[in-house]
Design a protein that fits this description.
The complex is a heterodimer of chains A (442) and B (220). Chain A has 17 helices and 5 strands. With 442 residues, chain A is an alpha+beta fold. In chain A, helix 15 links the parallel strand 1 and strand 2. The radius of gyration of chain A is 35 Å and the shape is elongated. Chain A starts with a helix and ends with a helix. In chain B, strands 2-1-3-4-5-6 form a 6-stranded parallel β-sheet, sandwiched between helices. Helix content of chain B is 52%, strand content 13%. Classes of the chains: A alpha+beta (442), B alpha/beta (220). At the A-B interface, strand 1 and strand 2 of A face helix 6 of B.
């Protein structure tokens, strides 16, 4: 769904006759393109009819729009159904068939159109009974507009539907289509107050009580119409709701399909190509497994950026990085969780370094990474069953890494203990006290 | 630990997985039967009376815990080892609390699986490193939440001893029982008894926090 702001950016006034090129139409076209009349998709405000006529005859779209608005004003609103008809019958640029040829076979759409039109006629009858006057004159042509728009809504191309959605957005609040926010609720309340005030004014203007006498007859007629047509309108509303649900389900299926395609099928393809490299195959399978698992069971998108905000997220990140870069499986277990602060970020950095170290040097088939968040401190243990080493006879390059792990921890008030012996594997235990701030937010 | 090969029934709805496990475990345990759903599994177990049932947590007809609950009453000697691909704490805790003696993930190696089966057959508990993590997490979450926890009739069940905690931590770090025994200067038997005691607490504790904790974990 496109963001509604896109449509409100220029303010509602600019959506009117002058279009987005301002009152003088910066884009001028003097000669038509000579082809058949088509609705112009690129320069559209509504259905692209005005832009299409402009391109066809070589006028500026703005001129066409002004003429259209004038025609609408003079004809007391008949311009609108005229426009909708043009939208229905003129094919879009690049398309052969118009929307109507498709709508003809859409029984549900025709039912919906007739239903909406009859609903509007009903409203107009009620308004007429209440002495609507000029309002009726303007609104009656819109019976046809509504029916036409319903057909376009059902049968139009994707961008026609999107345009309609944006044009009808203000109504969406009433039908529950758009989630109401505080501003739209306020708008509805003000509109309700204005309408109540206006109606009150109308009634008080006809102060004579005699006027109310025919009201009984009107009410009877209304009741009859509601009884006759009510269930039908309800069914139309229900059909619409069902259709919306079906669309939501289809969207969800598409989403799952896309996910399976993006990750699972890609990985399977990679595995087939790398079948001769077992290490790589295991690595790919594990990576995919983790990704799918976090998406299916934890509802978390692996690409989300908030991974590192907590201890558990940071541990997961270390696990992923090391498995991806060195192809050594890391079995991570986290007990408890808390938000990161500077000290804990340093702890995770040290743990990451220790894990990389184990992956590079130990030769172990698997590394375990265990993190526990306790009220007073956070500890991380990195352990492998690899070849281990003699702490007294460490080569210079490894000592450097050990120093950096050690240094990182002690600078922040933590401790790092390395337990190892040749052939015994290596265990790095890191402990960092929690600051009072992060301890408060477990 | 008994010396004869344990008799095993496989319960899993994926035929491919069953035949894979059967082929891998073939020599080390005796696979006497297979079932692919809850009701056939209950019937088969009652008929064959195996030592160990390797049980998938996710079965179409009600999940692994339904099998455990149905068999437990009539045949208390049949032991269950739960297998799952999901690692979702909710599922794991549910099947353990139903009465399974252990839990391992489907990515476990053949040797480890055979070892786990033998251990369960001998009456011990089997905790994967992940299950150990879950248990630590579950029992650590709000150690004494006074208001919303019913006072249990046996408060000893609601808490882990510090020794049990240590053992669980080492399991979570990938230590074997033998390595744990060496690390803590105790015998392997003692390690086993600590783990069995944790399993008992996990199964009998009335903290409904445990269930809630598992449910929350899934939503988090």
């Amino acid at each position: 769904m496109e963001h509604p702001d896109r449509w409100h950016r220029d303010g509602p006034g600019h959506r009117g006759p002058f279009g987005r090129h301002g009152p003088f139409g910066l884009r001028e076209r003097h000669t038509g393109h000579g082809g058949p009349l088509r609705r112009e998709q690129a320069d559209r405000l509504g259905g692209g009819v005005a832009a299409g006529i402009a391109a066809w005859r070589g006028f500026s779209p703005t001129t066409v729009r002004i003429v259209f608005v004038l025609v609408t004003l003079v004809s007391t609103g008949w311009g609108v159904p005229l426009y909708v008809l043009a939208w229905l019958f003129i094919p879009a640029a690049g398309a052969d068939a118009n929307i109507f040829s498709k709508a003809r076979n859409d029984a549900g759409g025709i039912r919906l159109a007739v239903g909406l039109a009859s609903l509007l006629i009903f409203v107009l009858l009620v308004a007429g009974a209440l002495n609507g006057g000029w309002f009726i004159g303007w609104a009656s042509p819109q019976v046809f507009s509504v029916a036409g728009l319903a057909l376009i809504w059902r049968n139009g191309a994707e961008d026609d539907q999107a345009t309609l959605r944006h044009l009808l957005e203000p109504l969406g609040v009433a039908t529950g289509d758009v989630r109401p926010n505080r501003r739209s609720a306020l708008r509805l309340v003000i509109a309700g107050a204005l309408m109540a005030g206006g109606l009150g004014w109308l009634f008080s203007a006809h102060a004579s009580l005699a006027l109310l006498r025919p009201l009984g007859g009107v009410l009877l007629v209304i009741a009859a119409i509601v009884l006759a047509l009510g269930p039908w309108w309800l069914r139309i509303a229900r059909d619409l709701a069902l259709e919306r649900q079906a669309k939501a389900r289809a969207d969800e299926r598409l989403d799952i399909g896309a996910r399976v395609h993006d990750s699972v099928l890609q990985t399977l393809a990679l595995i087939q190509r790398r079948a001769d490299d077992p290490q790589k195959v295991i690595q790919l399978a594990r990576m995919q497994e983790r990704e799918l698992r976090s998406w299916l069971f934890e509802g978390r998108d692996p690409d989300e950026a908030d991974e590192e905000l907590t201890v558990a997220g940071g541990v997961r990140k270390i696990q992923q990085d090391v498995e991806a870069r060195y192809g050594v499986p890391v079995e991570a277990v986290t007990v408890g969780d808390c938000d990161l602060d500077d000290n804990l970020t340093a702890l995770l950095a040290a743990a990451g370094e220790a894990t990389v170290n184990a992956a590079k040097w130990s030769g172990a088939g698997v590394i375990s990474l265990f993190a526990e968040v306790e009220p007073g401190e956070v500890s991380i243990v990195v352990r492998d069953r690899g070849k281990g080493f003699d702490p007294e006879a460490v080569p210079e390059d490894r000592k450097g890494l050990a120093e950096s792990v050690h240094g990182r921890m002690t600078r922040r008030g933590g401790t790092a203990t390395v337990t190892t012996a040749p052939g015994e594997g290596t265990k790095v235990t890191l402990k960092m006290p929690r600051s009072s701030l992060s301890a408060g937010r477990t | 630990m008994s010396t004869k090969t344990p008799r095993v029934v496989l319960v899993d709805d994926h035929g491919l997985f069953r035949s894979g496990v059967r082929a891998e475990l073939g020599r080390q345990v005796e696979v006497v039967g297979e079932a692919d759903d809850v009701q056939p599994a209950i019937d088969l177990i009652g008929e064959l009376l195996p030592d160990v049932v390797l049980l998938d947590v996710h079965l179409p007809g009600g999940g692994g815990q339904a099998v455990v609950q149905a068999v437990k009453g009539s045949h208390p000697d049949v032991r269950f080892l739960a297998l799952s691909a999901s690692d979702a704490p909710e599922d794991v805790i549910a099947v353990i609390r139903a009465g399974a003696r252990g839990y391992v993930t489907k990515t476990i190696s053949t040797a480890e699986l055979a070892d786990a089966v033998r251990r369960v057959a001998a009456g011990d508990a089997v905790f994967s490193h992940r299950l150990a993590g879950f248990v630590l997490d579950a029992f650590a979450a709000a150690p004494q939440a006074p208001s919303d926890v019913k006072p249990s009739f046996d408060s000893e069940l609601d808490q882990l001893t510090s020794r049990e905690r240590e053992v669980l931590r080492l399991i979570a770090q990938g230590y074997t029982y033998k390595e744990i025994a060496k690390e803590l200067f105790i015998s392997t038997k003692t390690v086993e008894s600590h783990v069995s005691s944790v399993l008992r607490k996990l199964q009998l504790s009335t903290r409904h926090q445990l269930t809630r904790w598992a449910a929350e974990r899934r939503l988090a």
